[in-house]
Amino acid sequence: MKLTTLWAFSEAVLGGILHALSIPFSGAVLTGFAVILISMISLFSESRGEIFKATLIVILVKGAVSPHSPVTAHFAVFLQGILGELFFFSKRFYKISTMLLSVTTIVLASVQRVILLTIIYGNSLWESIDVYSNFILNKIFNPGINDKSLQVSFIIIFIYLSLHFLLGIYVGLIAGRLPNWINKSINNFNISQLNVNYKSVLPFQYGKKKRVWWKRKSRIYLFAVLIVLIGLSYLHPGLDNVYGLNLLIMIIRAIMILYLWFTFLSPIIYKSFRKFLDKKKSTYAEQVAGIINSFPHFKSIFELSWHNSSEEKFIKRIKKFITLLIILTLLPGEEFSSLKVKG
């Protein structure tokens, strides 16, 4: 249950923390964190179905503290739990299972984003990237590159998916080795040696107001770029005005699809999903309430782990941070309370 609480905390609050720390690929990092916790839950579970049960509790908590989370975020957690239950059907191949779960979930998340962009903006998005990128390259390296010599959009997608694939392998290695790290660290672990004097800089808020879909930063930036490209196509003689018209049609198409999704389709799907969750709410009401009430405690654990790993550099810091985080999570509450954390 403690690991489930840490997973729920990460889904409800960790996004804001990652943003405050300016960590790139925060969505993939959040997914990787879920993979590590699912792996640990499987390690401690005594029967099949524990991961799925934990997944339902996490979704219920996420829905309670972040009611405006998009339905896709809930489905992402649901998929992680289903895949976790599938890959950890047998514990005989723990490290292989962690690797399969990590690579599959993180790569699937990246593929989903590419597919969504294609659905919303159509192939015109990728064609426009190719046209304008080659136009700029042609101006720089003239006359070595023709207008359609490079599929820049394919290169971007390939790099994007490859980075997520490598991240999936890295997270899989961490999840697979974490039990050994914990066993080695816990022998020399002394809670009294932890530095508890630090200034808290991490945000602790959830249940943010719902943002209007067309005010989201990512869409504002993309629309701004597309509008600039439209103007460029009409002002610069080296580009065909047809491209500007295609971009304009693409923007209109995107606005219509997003409007239909957020106004009609998403509420209907979410309503059906809520009916399913409401049937489970009474079963897990006590656990959900207990988890939400323990969030300040887990914030302290997260901050304490991050602060006490600060002397290490990058990869070593990640190793120490995650190891310490899990050890502190599994400690009895009264032992942690004796620290008198001042952060």
List keywords for this structure.
mainly alpha; about 350 residues
- Measure the end-to-end span: 25 Å
Q: Using only CA atoms, what is the Rg? A: 23 Å
Q: Mind describing the biggest β-sheet?
A: none
- Uncertain regions: pLDDT < 50 for 5+ in a row? none
| Quaternary structure type | single chain
In the residues, how many domains can be counted?
A: 1
Q: How many beta-strand segments?
A: 0
Q: Which structural category fits the helices and strands?
A: mainly alpha
**Percent range for β-strand residues:** under 5%
Number of helices: 12
- In helices, the fraction of residues equals over 70%
**General shape:** globular
Order of helices and strands: HHHHHHHHHHHH
What number is the mean pLDDT?
A: 80
Give a written overview of the molecule.
The protein has 343 residues and is mainly alpha-helical. It has one domain (2-126, 152-219, 269-337). 76% of the residues lie in helices and 0% in strands. The chain contains 12 helices and no strands. It has helices spanning 2-20, 26-44, 50-65, 71-87, 94-121, 123-141, 152-187, 217-235, 241-293, 295-307, 314-330, 333-337. The longest helix has 53 residues, at 241-293. The radius of gyration is 23 Å and the shape is globular. The protein starts with a helix and ends in a 6-residue tail after the last helix. The model has no long low-confidence stretch (mean pLDDT 80).
Could you write a compact summary of the structure shown?
By secondary structure, the chain is mainly α. It contains twelve helices and no strands. α3 packs across α9 and α10 (295-307) runs antiparallel to α11 (314-330).
